Structure formats: C-alpha cells, structure tokens
C-alpha cells in the first residue's frame, strides 16, 4: 500500500516540476477560466438592446413623436438615422448597418385619429433570429403603451378598442426565423479559424520540437520561402473544408445562397490567409506543439464568443465589441452571412475585407520579425 | 595596397578565419575569445568536455548564431553579413539527428537537393545514395533507421551539394565501432577530394585521425596543434602498474599532490605527472608489490590532465 503511494507521489512530484517549467502552459491554464468568466459573465448578453435602427417617417406629429420616444425609452432601439426619404434607408438593412428600419407613412396620424388602424412597419434583419427576436416581440406593446397618454378625451375610445395601430413586423432575410440559416454559414468561419491556426502553428513548432529547425536554418532557404511553403498546402485544406460545409448548408440545411459566389470566394481566401498568418505567428512564440495548441484555444475562445457567432454582437458592451472588431472572424461572419442570406454587394463589405486584410498584414509582419533566422 | 592584397590572399587559403569570437547566453559566457585559423583541405578535430563551447563555436562559424563580439570569415565570407552565402557553401551536420523521420531516405535527400538547387535532382540523389551505400534502403523511413544508418543519411545530405567546408558536430556519438570506422574512411575520402572538414568528437582515436586538433575548455581554446605536439607540450610522464591490489591503490595516488592524474583502466593502474622525480617518489611510497613500467602518455591522459590544470588555474585566479 505504502509502496504504491510512493510511486504515485514520485510521478506527482515529477509532474509538478515539469508543469512549473512550462510557464506558457501554466499561464494558459490560469488565464482560460478567467477569460471565460469575463466573457460569459460580462460580455455575453442574450437580450441585446440598443440595436441600430433607421427611421423613415413621412410626417412629424405629436403622436409619431410619442411612438419614437416610447421606442427609444424601451432601450431596444437606437435611432442612428431619422429621415423623411425612403431611399436612404433602403440598403441599410441589407448592408448590415442597421438591425431595424421603422417606416411611418404620411397620413398616419390622421388615419389613427379616424380609427382606421393605420399600419406601422418594422422591418427586422432576422438573419440572426436571436439578435432581433426580443425587440420584435416587444414592439407592439411598446407602441401601444407610448400612445396611451395621447389617447384621452374624445380619443379615449381608441385606447380601449382593438389596437389603434396595426404594428406589422417584417422579418427580412429569414422569415421563418430558422437558426441554422445564421449558424451554418458562421460555421465556415469557426471551423476555418480553429483548423487553420492550429495546423500552421503546430506544423512549424514540430520542426523546432524535433530539432529539424536547426537543419532548415543551416540550409539556404529564406524565411518567406519557409512561410509560403508551409502555408500553401493548408490553403487547399481550408478550401476543401469550406466546400464541405457549404455543400452541407445547401443539401442538408437548405440554407439559401442569395449573393455572389465570387465575393464569398474572395472573403474565404482572405480569411484563410489571415488565419494561416496568425498560426505562423503563434509558431514563433510557442516552443512546443502543446503550447501552440493552447495559444490556438486561447485565440479561439474569444473568437467564437465575441464575434457574433454564438451570441448577438450588438448585445455586448462596447469594450467587448471593440475586442470583437479586432478579430477576423467577426468580419468574416458579416461577409458570409451578408453574401449568403442578404445578397449584400461586395462594395458594401469593403470595410470588412479591409479589416481582415489589415489583421493579416499586422500578424504577418510580426511573424516575419519574430521568425528566427538564427538559433539565438 | 599591396600588403592588403597579400593579406587577402593569405586569408583566402583559410577555410575558417575567426578572431576573438565571444558568445554570451544571458550571463553565461559559452565561448570566450576563440580564434581559429584553419587552412583549406585539412581535417581538424574539435575536442573538449561537454559544455565547453564546441557546438556554439561551430554554429557561429556557419552563421546559425550571431557572435556577441568578435569577427571572422568562413570560406572568405563574413560570418555575420554573408551568412546566406556561407550556408550555400558549407555542410553542417547537427549533433542531434535533424532530418525528417516521417520521410524516406530518398525523400529527405530530394528535399535537400531541391533547397540547394541541385540538378537534375533524380540523378544527384541516385549518385549520393550509391556513393554512401544507401541505395538499397532508399525507401525506408528515416525514423526507422538505426544510429549508424541515420548518421550516414545525415552525412549524405550535408555533402550532396559538394560543400567546400564540412562542419560535423559529434557525428559518431552513439554509433558502433564498425560504423565509426566506415564513417571516418568517408571523411578522409571527402578530404582527399579537397573538402575541408572540422569535426567535433569525444573519441581520442578519432582525434588521432585528424591533421590537427583544437581543444576547448570552458569556452576557451586551451591548446591546439598536432596530436604528438600536444602530448609533448603537456609534458606528462606516465607509469603503468599491474599486479594484485592495483585497483585499490587508485585512491591513494589520487589524493597525493605529487600525482596529477591516476586512473584504472585496461586492467592496469595509470598515473601521470609533469614532475618525474615527484612521481617516482610517490611510486616509491605507495607502489610496493606492483609491476611498474613507464609508457608513452596517451592523448586522453594529456587532455584530462589539461582540463584539471585549467580547473586549478581558474580556481587560483578566482581567489587571487
């Protein structure tokens, strides 16, 4: 009995010594729960408020103002644009600039007073059903409540009758609110992030771990040659993965493909390159394959949580949105969801392409700088 | 002008010409002012205990490490500014096997041939495989080879581009005697074809196969020259004793200040010292009943004595 305890203790103490030698791994073990706590505890909010909303009103009356004020006070809607011109709001929803467009036509107030139950239209970007659902569920109640104070005196009969206003909610891009429409295209981004970063970072660290790096360094090959040579095979791996998921999206989940294949292809290529560059950078930091794996997980966690993949991006506090903006997955999700579900034109996604491109350049420059040409 | 040209010519005859190389790792000085002038076409041995700075020096010579200070040329190329050109003209065999174990012998060689832009690849690889007797095993995975064959693959890979300078870092560690002998025959064949070879080793018999040796200890060159010169320079007198109880006397001689070095090997007691009279006095005191015989000092004895003397020197200078 005692003898077997001795054996266990011997292994245990050896394990403790080795754990204390691998600082990066140890730091990760401590950091990952902290990061998860912060992200789940503070950043993630499944009831997103302050969603960007464009308002197209063709008349300004006290009652219209009451409705707008009521919506604003509900905290669900942030009016970023109020206009009398319908053309201005047309593309905002498609390009992902706003989550809602509210339209109040001319003659609305008169019709309301006459008891004609005029229509008030709220168009919602339902491509992410979770993000818009609460606001959509609440809008009728919000409007009716906002009108209550105005419906006094001769109008008080309206307050007790059937709805004085017909609130029409239009779920654009995903009328049935199917979650898969949002998740499956997003999976392309998530899977590419995981595999591309991990494969490259491990492929490079393997050379260091096995001692073959010294040999590579001693031979006439330049860092950029090593980088491109190492990365290129995995570009094809990433493209194959993309095809598999897109095929599944089409045949199994019946996700629509509304937009341009070539815009998506460009987005996927850029995104793959950015992740490969990041993997290469990780390989210049990690000393072992184990560390490379952990760095990948460390990057992967905020990527799925803060990019808008799992939880609504607009629901997060501003600081979390800023972190999200720094992650290539966030921008890639906007591209692939926009192209597949909303037929967002490439020009409207320029910012997203630019963000991924910038990420790639910065990370690539760090990799080139850190790549050791000597064994120092 | 003329003098400069002359100097240029002189250094052109040197494969390695480095001066005062220093390498610090943090606060530890691994290499301390090492200067080596090695002519082309020779085979030099690089000796010294583990951690004496052999590997670090070799890595600085072939551009894999940047010296903390010092300067020099390798094959007439600046070791700091022209590392790329040096890599093309040298072959460096690492101490630890560093080829790709999940690739076959042939795949490894073809990869190296491509990096050095050797054409036509198939022919170059075939020739190398045949010359080094690897042809029959060309499709075996490198990871499945035994020590001797791995080392032969490594030699094939680092010589395939016909480098002017070959740097071999303990190439025969862990290799059986027959394979070691074959390996050295190969080194001399390469040297015969004009290659310059610097090889680090722990084996004395290998040191004796070198034209000259450089002995490093604690990052400094302690001595260099031909084997016989070094043995003579150390100036040791050595006696060998056989008989009952020889083994038990080692400790007594070791404790004696008059004896520099005492050890038991080859079924005999060996003692050596620089001072013949003191040594004989010690034998007179502790050596009763043994058969004594003066022998030629071996290289190993000389080196061990050297490193001990170095140790004592650094101790006294440390105190003073």
TrEMBL record, chain A:
Membrane disposition: Multi-pass membrane protein
Keyword presence, Membrane: yes
Membrane-spanning residues: 24-44, 183-204, 231-253, 259-280, 292-313, 348-368
PROSITE patterns, alphabetized: ABC_TM2
Keyword RNA-binding among UniProt keywords: no
Pfam families: ABC2_membrane_3
Keywords: Cell membrane, Membrane, Transmembrane, Transmembrane helix, Transport
Subcellular location: Cell membrane
Gene3D superfamilies: abc type-2 transporter like domain
Residue span, ABC transmembrane type-2 domain: 145-374
Family: Belongs to the ABC-2 integral membrane protein family.
Name listed for the protein in its UniProt record: ABC transporter permease
Lineage of producing organism: Bacteria, Pseudomonadati, Pseudomonadota, Gammaproteobacteria, Thiotrichales
UniProtKB/TrEMBL annotation, chain B:
Key word Nucleotide-binding present: yes
Keyword Protease appears in the UniProt entry: no
Pfam entry (one): ABC_tran
Signal peptide feature range: none
Keyword annotations: ATP-binding, Nucleotide-binding
SMART domains registered for this protein in UniProt: AAA
InterPro entries tied to this protein: AAA+_ATPase (IPR003593), ABC_transporter-like_ATP-bd (IPR003439), ABC_transporter-like_CS (IPR017871), P-loop_NTPase (IPR027417)
Gene3D superfamilies: P-loop containing nucleotide triphosphate hydrolases
Domain ABC transporter: 16-243
GO molecular function, one term: ATP binding
Protein name: ABC transporter ATP-binding protein
Annotated organism of origin: Thiomicrorhabdus heinhorstiae
